[in-house]
Amino acid sequence: MADSPETDSERLDLSAFEVPPVPEGLADRVLARLPATAPRPPPRHWGRVAVAAVLLLALPGFAGWAVRHFGPPETGGRDFTRRETVRLGASALAVAEPGTTLHWVAGRRGTVRVRQPVGRVFYRVESGSDFQVETPSGQVAVRGTCFTIEVQPMLPSKQTLTGAAVGSLLTAAVFVTVHEGRVSLTSTAGATEVGAGERAVLSAGAAPRVLAAPAVGDTAVASAPKVPTSGEQAAPPSWQARESAYVAELTTLRARVKELEQSASGGTRPVPGSPESEKKGSWLEPSQEELLEMAQKCQLRWDAPTLRPKMALKPSPEELAKLGMTEDEVQVVAEVHDAFVQQSVEQLRAIYVAATGDVDNSRVLSPDALQQEILDKSTEESIRRAFQRISQERAGLAAPPADTTGLPPAERLARLNTGLGDGFERALAEKLGASRARDLRALRGGWSSKHSSSQGCPSQP
Amino acid sequence: MGILAAIGPRAPTQRTAPGELAPAVVARAQAGDTEAFRALVLHHQDAVHALLYRLLAPSGREGWVEDGTQETFLRVYRALPGFDVRGPAKLSTWILTLATRLALNELRRPALVVPVAELASLPVAGPHRADALAERRALGEAIRAALGQLPPDQRAVLVLREMHGLEYAEMAEALELDVGTVKSRLSRARAAMRAALEQHHG
Q1: Is A16 close to B136, i.e. CB distance below 8 A?
Q2: CA distance A438 to A84
């Protein structure tokens, strides 16, 4: 094999695997996420490193460190007895649940250091902020994101009690759920990064572990185990029981994903136009037989346009030619998409308010974060029920409700998500005609975001 | 062009990696000049986005490509002051290295996103299809599906070599492997790719 790729005779031509264009405005979004302060070159002399290390070691504590590096800080500390929203400096917001204790120091340059010894807090941090939360089991650091930290105190084991004071041995299981962006988790035993839609656990003496990675915006898959709310804290499940639940859920989901991946790998896919394909229907338009089968499993699949504004479907020149579409029509698609996104996000906000009672945050959270919080406040059973009802309605086994406003938030969310594809097609049909709207949706086998998922049927019929 | 034409030796694919950015602009970006960093992002975003798409989309993770591209550039920003412009590594290769490692980390996470995007439209192109455009699209989908069958490490080697034109030493640096391992991994990846495409269109 020649070293230079250009003269490598064994080289394969893979250029037919084409890549979509870079999303518009990507550079702007990167720049919006840059930290407020420019990064510094790494130290090049060990002597300077040693001096810095000595200085750091000489610092008496956390607050002193912040004071010396960032000038007179804004400090605060609270024990929360009810759900409250507090500002942490100019760039971060925390929604603390009852039973939470927080101490914070916000420096002049936007640096925020928080200590959360106990409780559950939802954090929203502006892009570019230098934000860190210290928990009993390790640190959580971010640069613009929103996430939840739940610290559950654990009783020390009999073994660890031997020869030490009880108070100094209290440990905690710290659960971190990331709604947007990424955060890094560091404990004495290691570090890891956690992405949007994932949960991780920090335990004293152990490396941080990612527990599950539900699909962002995917109602079904994203329904991670419920995080107890304040009302349930009187009798919290044990940490071990929660762990077992997470592991069981992961095992189930992995098996499900494997099953779906196998079905998607080509082995059982029918050839379009074949008798089997007729029987099976298309992904976008499942046959009645498939709908009944899905209803039996409380399974749903759906497509949806992206809920990011200014990100409407843009057909390629070849696709435009194939459809006979004009540039004016492309512009109409973009306008309809923007209006549709606005309308859908408003509905999402209304569901969020119904689930949390929190009007202020409904205005600032992104669609993904709104969905994650709604699911956090919902039971798995309510999500299973929603899937059961909707799948039965699709198969013609049940009539849809006349009014959805009184339904549980989880079901309203599931109905909103699974109806986005049809809703956008209808909105386009009003402007471009039903035929054009259908052609656009079918162009790539459905709108950009496709989901196929099941939570299983509810335990009680 | 038939599907199987992709399997044999071909003319070199055009490199996605762009030329290098002017050293003065890089120096300004290293000093924290935001506009210079914007220029750097604009200069390299096509290659980073394409690399991440090629590594992630075959596993049904298209949805993470933009986030990954943003995250790559945030890492570039943080690490840029320590990049030695006079060192052996080209800036473009160094950036692709960061992107590759990020993608491999992502691919190692539990895959709970169901890759169903291709269900509706996976190509089953007949051998006598006349439409060249449709054939090329079918070939692209077949390549994507075959890439999806490769383990992430082999996929990374193949994509970096065939689609981004990296040399062995650069790939070894990016993947933290020795050159011998890179070559053997590439050889296995090519063999698996050929077999997958042959089987697909048998």
Answers
A1: yes
A2: 47
Pairs across A and B, CB distance < 8 A: 202
| pTM for this entry | 0.41
CB neighbours of residue A400 within 10 Å: 11
Give the 3-state secondary structure percentages of chain B, helix then strand then coil, rounded to 5: 70, 0, 30
Q: Rounded to whole angstroms, how far apart are CA atoms B161 and B168?
A: 8
The ipTM estimated for the assembled molecules is 0.81
Query: Is residue B155 predicted with pLDDT exceeding 90?
Result: yes
CB distance A224 to A212 below 8 Å: yes
- CA B144 to the chain's CA centroid: 12
Q: How far apart, in whole angstroms, are the C-alpha atoms of residue B202 and residue B194?
A: 11
Q: Residue A224: what are its φ and ψ, rounded to 5°?
A: -65, 165
Instruction: Report d(CA A145, CA A126) in Å as an integer.
Output: 7
Q: Give the Cβ contact number of residue A104 at 10 Å.
A: 23
Computed on alpha carbons and rounded to an integer, the radius of gyration of chain B in Å comes to 18
Mean pLDDT of the A53-76 span: 50
Instruction: Nearest by CB to A41, from B82, B121, B166: name it.
Output: B82
Between A186 and B125, where is the model more confident? A186
- Of the candidates A221, A212, A218, the one whose C-alpha atom is nearest the C-alpha of residue A371 is A218
Pick B70 or A48 by higher pLDDT: B70
Which residues on A lie below 8 Å from B122 (Cβ)? Answer: 266, 269
The DSSP secondary structure of A98-144, one letter per residue, reads TT-EEEEEE-TTSEEEEEEEEEEEEEEE-TT-EEEEEETTEEEEESS
Ordered DSSP codes for A277-297: HHHHB-SSSB-HHHHHHHHHT
Q: Which two structure tokens, joined as six digits, stand for A95?
A: 């929604």
